[in-house]
Amino acid sequence: MIVVMKPKFTKDQMEAAIRVMEAGGVKVMVSQGSETTILGAEGNAAGIDREKLAQLPGVERVMRVSEPYKLANRKYHPDDTVINLPNGAAVGGKRLAVFAGPCSVESRDQIVSVAKRVRDAGACALRGGAFKPRTSPYAFQGMGTDGIRLLCEARAETGLPVVSEILSTEDLDLFEEHVDVIQIGARNMQNFDLLKHMGQVSKPILLKRGLSSTIEEWLMSAEYIMAAGNHRVILCERGIRTFETFTRNTLDLSAVLAVKRQSHLPVVVDPSHACGQAWMVERMALAAAAAGADGLIIEVHNDPEHALCDGQQSLTPDQFDQLMAKLRPVAACVGREV
Amino acid sequence: MIVVMKPKFTKDQMEAAIRVMEAGGVKVMVSQGSETTILGAEGNAAGIDREKLAQLPGVERVMRVSEPYKLANRKYHPDDTVINLPNGAAVGGKRLAVFAGPCSVESRDQIVSVAKRVRDAGACALRGGAFKPRTSPYAFQGMGTDGIRLLCEARAETGLPVVSEILSTEDLDLFEEHVDVIQIGARNMQNFDLLKHMGQVSKPILLKRGLSSTIEEWLMSAEYIMAAGNHRVILCERGIRTFETFTRNTLDLSAVLAVKRQSHLPVVVDPSHACGQAWMVERMALAAAAAGADGLIIEVHNDPEHALCDGQQSLTPDQFDQLMAKLRPVAACVGREV
Amino acid sequence: MIVVMKPKFTKDQMEAAIRVMEAGGVKVMVSQGSETTILGAEGNAAGIDREKLAQLPGVERVMRVSEPYKLANRKYHPDDTVINLPNGAAVGGKRLAVFAGPCSVESRDQIVSVAKRVRDAGACALRGGAFKPRTSPYAFQGMGTDGIRLLCEARAETGLPVVSEILSTEDLDLFEEHVDVIQIGARNMQNFDLLKHMGQVSKPILLKRGLSSTIEEWLMSAEYIMAAGNHRVILCERGIRTFETFTRNTLDLSAVLAVKRQSHLPVVVDPSHACGQAWMVERMALAAAAAGADGLIIEVHNDPEHALCDGQQSLTPDQFDQLMAKLRPVAACVGREV
Amino acid sequence: MIVVMKPKFTKDQMEAAIRVMEAGGVKVMVSQGSETTILGAEGNAAGIDREKLAQLPGVERVMRVSEPYKLANRKYHPDDTVINLPNGAAVGGKRLAVFAGPCSVESRDQIVSVAKRVRDAGACALRGGAFKPRTSPYAFQGMGTDGIRLLCEARAETGLPVVSEILSTEDLDLFEEHVDVIQIGARNMQNFDLLKHMGQVSKPILLKRGLSSTIEEWLMSAEYIMAAGNHRVILCERGIRTFETFTRNTLDLSAVLAVKRQSHLPVVVDPSHACGQAWMVERMALAAAAAGADGLIIEVHNDPEHALCDGQQSLTPDQFDQLMAKLRPVAACVGREV
Q1: Which helix (H) or strand (E) holds D205?
Q2: d(CA D88, CA B11)
Q3: Which of A29, A316, C58, C277 sits 20 to 30 Å CA-CA off D132?
């Protein structure tokens, strides 16, 4: 961290600034020129109260040199984090992790039949929504606890671990008991209360990027979970809001590269939500693999035309088979397996 | 709602589409041209499952003609909603409602002294954060329950009702018992679980606009609270995220006009969070009044330089006095009082 | 400017960095700590090739402390710039400058009748488009040279100076001869060729902010014009692109405050283009005045329903009369006249 | 196009609306329900003056059903457009077209040596900037005419056609004579005067997407060039502005899919400008190929550390060799050659 003093600062003001910096656990290097005086922090500046510093009289500007996240930072944890799933699959290793399934659990037949198909095609986990965050209070809100129960039945039938989104801390016990990977949706990426609770569960967390969040904010949300005790965080790029309306969101594949450089956490890509249109999913999935994603989340529905939610962006099981077939050679080009 | 059929649709497909529309409680008007066939909904289309309709085979496009919100819609509730506060003040009437106070409650002295000053200057409620949503898990997270207790003491001393942000449903009883207006912060605007719980409390809700949300999404979040039973929602424009970095956010004053046309709910403006810089607050407060806001939320701190949070954007009590003095004539220009 | 060296840099690398900085005309202050080494520029760093510096080996980061614009910077020109118009009016002084007129010049009758009405209501200049930048090549492109001729006739009848947008350097002589204030539209804000040519005309330039441009980019475009020789630049805030679709653009009134702090150039506000809806214009005009704008640009059309362009956002002359009547007391509240 | 009439419209108003529609060359289908009356256009609605229609009294809303572009529209031109280059290469066919070269032409040695290397690695054209659009008037503006001359020398040495950006219509003859593909930069995407002139040259145009433009606006700019007579337009996705600051821009690969569905024009991708960092270019280039791009534009510099412009994002010739080697198998996965 670097502090630039105002052109006309007093000695007292500089000393006050130094005290705030030292209170954050760093040594301070003072560099006084004829026009500009700079205070440089030696050591990890994450503990400095940056805001307090910025509003001191005499302080012109506080500039960060290092990232505000520590536990999620690759600097302090150079090796890739690999997160193991109960069925022996893993996220973050050489093999791409593909999570697939319907937007919403709708019935036993639906979820079991989709689960079988995606397992046979090579998916390593079943995704399915039981609690749905819908923009309208009048839209289908998911099957709730019954949906979780049906996911468990599909797991029993197929051996696939299940991934599902949590909306409320009231459902913590339910998810802790029955769900294998707990998803935090984009709209809850900065629901800090929920994040803190995620730090206390024993399951990996799939943290979706917020609709308009920066990579740094996303990693800070991962940091919340990690600082609260759970280091098993899988990041998920699912498209950001831009001015483009042709696609539901804009898939930001360079974020995959950026996150993998800045952090050791694995990153998966959800082209279904990003694009919002089934015909785009296959190509964007291939592009995600080429870019270096650690995995994919793909919406698959046995009958997209009658899906209760997001049918437009769901692949049929046959289309998913085809996607997986095309994914293998592309993954191989970048040294990965499927 | 208008449905455009694809150029080559079948009779069965059209009938399927009509069935979905009729299931939503409308009559359907069919208009068949030589090239284009259109289905028009007669009546309130809010009950139609738009997504389901859109993914039917044979359907080219579904276009909404009316708004997806009902309870918040001025069409069905032409008169302005006025929300009364315990001290006789009101939000949404002729008199501008000014909520003022520090970003965070820090001590009894601080909150009581600020409360007295802002009451004397004409504020009708005291705002103060006890639970703070911070981007970093390492930043000051607020005094919590103690902060709420201090707000109550400040209320006892001044008679001002208190406004504070809730982050967790675990604190519902605390807020229901002690807080007069419960604030939902921008990052929780689409925390649908929290919104549903807000429908069940007996206090007015101050709903801040999400960082990148559209007016429609904001009103849909109000609709969530209202549909769950609480019709006393105050909307708060607090700036949206744009590419501009000079200001913390970009205050969208045309949203005030837009919301007041579309909805009967009162709208207040928070220039402190929008601009992020104390020197801008007065002018933007005047502009908000000129634009037609029903009130303002202003950060006031007895000692901004040593504030634990957001000191840069806080006014001193003296600056707040001056703002209120300048606000009166501007409000008068547009037929309002302060 | 501050340069942070990488943790493991060589002496040669640091010397190379110092040479690049010194070549930009500054003295360099070296501050070596045990972990961090910083190079600070003493003096005006605007001449340093920042990009070159940033890509030197051994350089971790280059941070700007001062603004990249000089001629437009209030630091080096503390007094407000006031731009005089031929009829004795001025932009940037105590009196608000109101430019009014139709989006497009359509006929002699139209432009002359509107000109008379807006002059009588207190406008100080007539705006009217002769060359129109339209998103579609099939839309009305303006009357061209004939439009300019009609503007001259309206000026002859009313004494109002005329403001019109230039699209092509081929029309430079035409504009230099006949137009009093030459407008650069939002889509051309970074048409650097056109900006350079604007530096060589003798008329004031009205520079609209680009659709998604930052304040700094906007001021850098002003700097282009000024560096090429024309210091008479009027900035115009006309709304920026955001995710909100209710309004055509989002009027950024805090930009008025920001620009006036950073620059000495006058700033006017165009609520008509920002909002895109006539019913919003009056209120946003009052808000702009309260925020501190130096003037307004208002679309006025004698018959908005039959306007060839932007009729939806045009006021009638009667509505403009009313706006001006309401503007006076608001302007007075902030120490301005109309 | 569909027109929804207001709840209480008059017969005259409806007839006026019908007249405007018919004047645009369509037949009008009237559909009167008890609450809603709709006018539907039969036939191509691109000729209808939509804005005029929208502001008629009695008209509630005008909704577009079809795209506003015709010449660029795949509907009316189902086959892919293939654009041939003088050296027998083509853009839009089975073989990916790779344009490579430095951001700026700096010297004969530089441009010739880079040209040889990129040709040997498989590039089909040499890109190099002679006229540079720089945000700052004080930054290097390019070698100008001398740069074009050096490009010609590099072409003479290597046989590679040259691609360069035009900024000014004053340089039209120069470009028409010496440049093989004329580039319109992102900042000039809506410089309609320049676009119209591009319609009159005999060379293919490389049209970069604007910084914040939608796909529709981009295609409308292509339509400008095509409507003015030049149908040889190559679209270039180069990243859009988002809130993310880690990358210079955000590469929108789903735009490649979208554009290829909506239009028959070829689309190439520029990962260098999008990411702004050399280490990201290879991966994003592979992703672009996987997504279905027709080609790539890659910045290659013989000595990036001393480049006068954009060195941070330039590959060395060796890195470019490696990129091409990795590109081949990925392209093969999606049925393309390099």
Answers
A1: strand D205-208
A2: 51
A3: C58
Residue C143, pLDDT above cutoff 90: yes
Chain B residues with CB inside 8 Å of C288's CB? Answer: 287
Task: Give pLDDT, residue C1.
Answer: 86
Asked whether the beta carbons of residue D135 and residue C311 sit closer than 8 angstroms, the reply is no
Give the pLDDT confidence of C226-272 residue by residue, as tens digits: 999 999 999 999 999 999 999 999 999 999 999 999 999 999 999 99
Burial of D66 (0-12, 13-18, 19+ CB in 10 A): middle
Distance, in Å, from the CA atom of D307 to the CA atom of C278, rounded to the nearest integer, reads 51
- In this predicted structure, the answer to whether residue B186 has a pLDDT above a threshold of 90 is yes
CB atoms within 10 A of CB B300: 30
- pLDDT at D35 > cutoff 80: no
- With CA atoms as reference, the chain B residue closest to A49 would be B139
Question: CA of B129 to nearest chain C CA: how many angstroms apart?
Answer: 25
Nearest CA to C333 out of B319, B321, B328 is that of B328
Nearest-CA residue of chain B relative to C327? Answer: B333
C275, C281, C284, C288: CA torsion to nearest 10: 100
| D246–C contact, CB cutoff 8 A | no
> Quick check: B104 and B140 in contact, CB under 8 A?
yes
Burial class (CB in 10 A: 0-12, 13-18, 19+), C15: exposed
Residue C63's pLDDT band, with cuts at 50, 70 and 90, is confident
A270 at interface of B, judged by CB pairs closer than 8 A: no
**C258, closest residue in chain B (CA to CA):** B246
Judged on CB neighbours under 10 Å (0-12, 13-18, 19+), C202 is exposed
Q: Taking a C-beta distance cutoff of 8 angstroms, is the pair B87, B96 a contact?
A: no
Segment (H or E) for D317 = helix D317-333
Residue A265 phi, psi (nearest 5): -75, 150
Distances (CA, A) of C87 to C293, D311, D332: 21, 51, 69
pLDDT of residue D74 exceeding 90, the answer is yes
Dihedral angle at the C-alpha atoms of B85, B91, B95, B100, nearest 10 degrees? 80
CA distance A13 to B4: 68
Q: Please tell me the predicted confidence (pLDDT) of residue B36.
A: 79
Return d(Cα C305, Cα C315) in angstroms, integer. Answer: 10
DSSP secondary structure string for all residues of A201-255 = SSS-EEEEPPTT--HHHHHHHHHHHHHTT---EEEEE--B--S--SSSSB--THH
d(CA A222, CA A228): 10
Tell me whether strands A2-5 and A37-42 are parallel, antiparallel or unpaired. Answer: antiparallel
- Count the Cβ atoms, other than its own, within 10 Å of residue B76: 12
pLDDT in tens, A30-63: 888 777 788 988 877 777 888 788 888 889 888 8
pLDDT digits (tens, 9 = 90+) for A300-332: 999 887 787 777 899 999 999 999 999 999 999
d(CA A83, CA A203) in angstroms, rounded, equals 10
Nearest CA in chain A to C34: A42
Q: Do A312 and B51 touch (CB under 8 A)?
A: yes
Bridging pattern class, strands B59-63 and B2-5: antiparallel
Instruction: Count the alpha carbons within 13 Å of D209 in the hemisphere toward its beta carbon.
Output: 33
Residues in C touching A60 (Cβ below 8 Å): 65
**Residues of C whose CB is below 8 A from A243:** 241, 243
The pTM of the full predicted model, rounded to 2 decimals, is: 0.94
Of the candidates B286, B236, B272, the one whose C-alpha atom is nearest the C-alpha of residue B91 is B236
Q: Rounded to whole angstroms, how far apart are CA atoms A117 and A115?
A: 5
Q: Which residues of B touch A193 (CB under 8 A)?
A: 167-170
- Contact check, Cβ <8 Å, D36/B65: yes
